[in-house]
Each structure stands twice: as C-alpha cells, then as structure tokens.
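Lab meeting, item 3. Inverse folding demo.
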C-alpha cells in the first residue's frame, strides 16, 4: 500500500474516476493492484488469487460502501485548508474591487437582458459576501466530516467486520491521516445518508 501512496503503481489504476457504481470499480481496482503486488512480493504470479484474493483478503471486513465514503471524507478534509485560503484571498480581492468600482454605474441584467442600473461595486460586494457565508458554512460543516462509517461494510450493519477491527481501523486512519476521525455513532445511518 505504501508503494501505491508513493506513486509507484499509478499506471495500474485504469478505472476512469468519473464512473458510476458508487466507486465499486475504483475500489476493486485498488484491491486488485494491492493483491497482485502482494503476490509478486511473495514470488507468485499476478492473478493467482487462490493465495491472495482482492475480495477475500485485501477487501476483508470492508466494502466500497464504507471505504469509499471514508476516503472521500479524508480527501475533502485534506483539501479544505487550501480551499478556504483561496476563498479568503478571493473574498479580499472582491472587497477591494467593490471599493474600487463603487462609483461605476452599469446596467444590471436579469434573464440575460438589461434591467436597471447598479453600481459595479455593489456586484463585487455581493461576490465577497457570498464567499464570506460559504467559508463560514464550510468551517461549520468540517466537524461532521470527521465522523466516518469505516467498518460499516455494505449496508451499515458491520457484517463480517469484527467490532475490534472497526474500532482499530478508525483509530489507525486517524493516526495516519493526522485527522481527529471518529467512528459514526450509527453506522447504518452513516452508510445510508452521506449528509456530512
């Protein structure tokens, strides 16, 4: 898995990221790459899944329905700081432009047609205000992304996942991601409703 993180096997990830199926094909692609690499390290042939199976071994005690949403939470959390910094910069620029263009009168538009006059500065002020609200909403929603459904397996019941595994995998993910991840209070709810 570390070799994959290091980018050594990226050319083996052949599934288009824009695909249907809630990530199943992408998850299986990852499982197959890991299984085949493990087989190689053991001196066996790729595809000899009798010894190491993408489903039975690599994907053991998990499902696309818990692994994929958990990965999305982690990826989103990792991207948020950069997003918020960029939004903050845009907000500041729009504030400057609102002041700079406050005296400029222009024709406002609705429904792709000229409407009534508006100051260009007012439009830029509105852009800065929406960014301000959105940054606040993003910061407030971040706490909900820390709750993950890893260990829920296919439908949230945790079938075929030992309760100790569920606890350990979330702790391990929190450690390696350096994020304060916690297991969802209700795994069925967290699997059915990805409303974070």
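The presenter then showed the designed sequence:
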């Amino acid at each position: 898995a570390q070799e994959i993180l290091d980018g050594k096997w990226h050319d083996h990830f052949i599934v288009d990221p824009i695909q249907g199926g809630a990530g199943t094909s992408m998850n299986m692609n990852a499982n197959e790459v890991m299984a085949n690499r493990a087989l190689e390290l053991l001196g066996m042939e790729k595809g000899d899944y009798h010894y190491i199976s993408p489903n039975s071994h690599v994907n053991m005690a998990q499902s696309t329905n818990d692994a994929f949403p958990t990965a999305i939470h982690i990826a989103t959390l990792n991207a948020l700081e950069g997003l918020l910094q960029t939004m903050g910069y845009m907000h500041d620029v729009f504030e400057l432009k609102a002041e700079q263009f406050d005296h400029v009168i222009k024709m406002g538009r609705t429904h792709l047609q000229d409407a009534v006059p508006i100051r260009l500065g007012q439009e830029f002020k509105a852009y800065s205000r929406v960014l301000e609200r959105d940054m606040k909403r993003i910061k407030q929603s971040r706490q909900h992304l820390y709750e993950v459904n890893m260990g829920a397996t296919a439908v949230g019941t945790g079938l075929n996942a030992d309760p100790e595994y569920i606890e350990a995998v979330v702790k391990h993910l929190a450690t390696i991601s350096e994020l304060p991840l916690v297991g969802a209070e209700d795994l069925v709810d967290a699997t059915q409703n990805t409303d974070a």
